[in-house]
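Exercise 3.2. Students should predict the tertiary structure of the chain below and write it as structure tokens, then compare their answer with the key that follows.

Predict this chain's 3D structure.
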Amino acid sequence: MRPVAGAPRDVHALVRAWVRDGGDPVVVRTSGSTGEPKDVILSHAAVTSSARASLERLGGPGGWLLAMPVTGVGGLQVLVRSALAGLDPVLVDEHDGLAAAIDAIPGDRRYASLVPTQVHRLVEAGQVDALRSLDALLIGGAAAPPELLDALDGVRVVRTYGMSETSGGCVYDGVPLDGVRLRVDDTGQVHVGGTVLFDGYADAAATARVLRDGWFATADLGTIDAAGRLRVTGRSDDVVISGGVNIGLPAVTRALRGLDGVRDAIALGVPDDEWGARVVAFVVPDAGADAPPLHVVRDGVEASGLPRTWAPREIVPIAALPLLPGGKVDRVALRRR
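Answer key:
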């Protein structure tokens, strides 16, 4: 089996027939944002179960905006939901801007699915008004910063959690879709079960490491409250040990993004002979500005309420964070710099 590939309209025609008639599993290649990509095998039953549960949660079938690669699970699910609704998706690239594309979405209900980076760029471009006409805007693929959500006043935002192995988003605003089971083990690791799970990876050994007794062990950490609502607190690989200190990289990233003169940033751990690992800040400065010097960044991270031992030991100015086709930050590329 080969991963999904091809031009969006060509893939849509194939997906429409596959949704209607059934067939062999499809293969989706993960983004590989933190390491080597994996080929994920998804059955017809899993993919369509996810899509039907999504539409049920959103309020019914409708037309969809396609703004993500169809080679990834996010774009694939837009095609599947469109096929279930009997409607063609609207491709952003085929229209003169976002507003025109949204206006062209067919059906009684209109939906879009984007990653936070895409939404951030739309906010910066002053295109939030166009998003307000949607019946729902799904945001997934990565955690959406609170300040980004605040900028979407009047937009019905649905924060999704999921991955290729769960046929896309399987938890909406913390609540699992119908047919999805969640549990958190004693270490805080999130496990997902239910009808949306993948059959496995093309690599059987990799499958055995994460899929056991009907449960998929994610790389995410989280909690489940008394109402069954999931809160993702980080990733198991988002914690580095530097000089014997456990450092939560998402918290450092949030602190960096709040510094004056910083347009965007991410904190990553890189190997270090002395410290075991050191925290490096990849910083995109404001237009026309230089990145803040290291001592200013370290002071700012500490002023945000984090221990000074968590502050970056190196600053790497960069014009823009490299992104994978699905919109996630390419951490592997950054670590190679």
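Discussion points: Residues 8-178 form a domain with the Rossmann fold fold (CATH 3.40.50.12780). Residues 17 and 140 are 27 Å apart (CA to CA).
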